[in-house]
Amino acid sequence: MNLFGVLSPSPPSLATAFVSPKLSTILPKPRPTSSSSCSISRQHPRVPILYASETNDMLLPHYTSKSVLSWLQKMETSYKLERGEELMDAILREDTTSAEYLDNNNDSPLIQLATICAKTTLPIASHDFLRDPDGVAIYNYGNHAFLRGFGYPWEEFVVLPSKYCVESEEDMQERQQLLDSVKANAIAKSEGDNVDETEMASNYDNLIRIRKDKKKILLRGVNLWNVYDVPAEDDAKGTSEELIRTKIEEGEMKAIGQAVWIKNVDYLD
Hints:
The protein is of the alpha+beta class. Helix content is 32%, strand content 18%. It has helices at 66-83, 87-94, 109-119, 144-150, 154-157, 169-190, 197-203, 241-249, and strands at 17-20, 25-28, 124-128, 138-142, 207-210, 216-228, 255-267. It is globular and about 45 Å long.
């Protein structure tokens, strides 16, 4: 849906960053991009290009950086708020092979989540609204499966405005309406209003998006949720889920991004 072209040459490294005062985490600065396109790929007869920085036999340092761990914690808590289940449980249910990555019981729960998210065969990605003065959504996370399908290395992907996953201006508008509806439905549910879950799910299915090489892909089983600026675990002691929900309802705690995991991705070209 919202997720997921040719990028500008020589993308900035992750060393080029700024500190978000709200998150107190380091996020890469975006740079202007030319008309771009993107993809997600999981089931494809051809072998996708693998970047050296995105192999599955090791967990690259950026997946356990302080900023990424902080964001994953917000993703996880926000998923529980909106979906009523743990993100880890959802991934393990949909991708039973993910359990093999939990072979080190000495890892903290957050490191285990980072490992599962990075290595699952389910494409997972997110964007934030924090780095552009106009609130344009820019990717800030993509796991191995997502990046392999897109054909992007991490350094390019995390400065890419996510609107370049669609082909035309009209498609961009439709995509934005879909993203806005996710925000609106979350607010409605938190206020106790009835939300047609079946209709919501149908809106997130059979979405056509564009890869970096401009080939079209079909997304099915798209699970999109809002990411809120929830406090880190160490800062949240005594903060109940009910209190967080109240802050969301009253507008005190707003969505600062959105995240997605996807069941199936098929190539159309």
